Amino acid sequence: MVSPQDKIVIIGAGCFGISTAYHLSKRGFTDITVIDRSETLPAKDGSSNDFNRIVRTSYSDNVYTVLAKEAIEIWKDRTVWEDDSYHECGVLVLASRVSDSFVDESYINDKNQGSRVDNLPDAEAIKKVFPPHVPVSSFNDNRGYMNHDGGWADAGKAVSYLTSKVKSMGVKVNGGHTVKCLRRRNNITTGVECEDGTVFEASKVVIATGSWTSSVFRDIGLKEKCLATGQVIAMIQLTKEEADRYRQTPVVLNFATGFYCFPPTDSHIVKLAIHAPGFTHTVDNVSTPRTIITNPEDGLAIPKKSVLALREHLRTVYPELAGKPFKSTRLCWYNDSPDGDWIIGPHPEDGSLIFATAGSGHAFKFFPVIGRLVADAIQDKLDPPLAKKFAVNRPASFAAKTDGVRAAEVVKELDISQLCTPEDLLLV
């Protein structure tokens, strides 16, 4: 049984890692160390370091709806979460006009949780969600609902805030430590050895390494449990006058296509993306993130076909913006599980090794609370249904992928020869 005086080492200073450090510290743990490969935190190429992430309660799985509702209350509570990184603009959830059980079940779950939702049965109802001066598409192929209890969070700002907070609580946060291997004695994890020779001994080691998990820890059987996938993102730079026109729009999330986009930021940037199976980048038989750090020249480039797809999807929401050049692109790397559920809990044969990973592209909205689940797992207090749901050895494999709206398509290998060029971003 772990005690608050035991040494805890958390590998990874992103969403899972920093939230876990926070919740352990709140429980009185006094010897917590967080290490990360990046010298600068949050890591420049980490998925938790972005300027906006969707915060929604819209899930067909009520477990996530309830937890997201709690997270939003904390995002909004300035007595708990002093940072102003959360922006409540509402989330427009779109579905196709034909049957869409995911959206229908999400709407029911949101209503049952008391969220402020408006049913939008047709195109005319959808268009009324937007300010009258904003040119929008016809939405003839859509229905959906508006959830006013949601919006977006500045992920990089939020991680920086909580990192500072955990440091003030006594947590040691050390960047610039790339893990070489786990240290073991009698098949039990006893610490971490880094590439620079530094050793961190621990009673519990928490793996919170996101999309790098499978490529860093090749010897602990995660290949069928974790898959690094790159998701396509693009940004459009507006003028202040242009941005002001779109400033009061909601987050738009189309579950029929996976496309989503945000209102303009304070820097007048509109971000758009597609929540899809994404792309793998296989190195030595394991998908490994390819980023601006690993490939400085073209690590932010996305496939040329994806540039066109993003533009066509944007046209189905904001036709005027679809004609503008893209300012930049990025592959945001997820750590996917086959069923879209997270992996939180101990290794089945090594109780000193704890997993806190497989965010599957939807974990960040839970940043204020997700570390509580990991802390529960560390203390062997996680509710049995959740422990079963998030167990690393649950019956789920990529051979029978069941990750909701993303399961219908097949992940593709990234073709480096077909990455976009700056000229491709200008074509409209």
Automatic annotation (TrEMBL):
GO molecular function: flavin adenine dinucleotide binding; L-pipecolate oxidase activity; proline dehydrogenase activity; sarcosine oxidase activity
InterPro entries: FAD-dep_OxRdtase (IPR006076), FAD/NAD-bd_sf (IPR036188), MTOX (IPR045170)
Keyword flag DNA damage: no
UniProt xrefs under Gene3D superfamilies: D-Amino Acid Oxidase, subunit A, domain 2 (3.30.9.10), FAD/NAD(P)-binding domain (3.50.50.60)
Cofactor(s) needed by this chain: FAD
Superkingdom as given in the UniProt entry: Eukaryota
Keywords: FAD, Flavoprotein, Oxidoreductase
Pfam families per the UniProt record, alphabetical: DAO (PF01266)
FAD dependent oxidoreductase domain ranges (all copies): 7-376
Statement: the UniProt record of this protein carries the keyword Nucleus: no
UniProt family annotation: Belongs to the MSOX/MTOX family.
Name of this chain's protein: FAD dependent oxidoreductase
Upper classification of the organism: Eukaryota, Fungi, Dikarya, Basidiomycota, Agaricomycotina
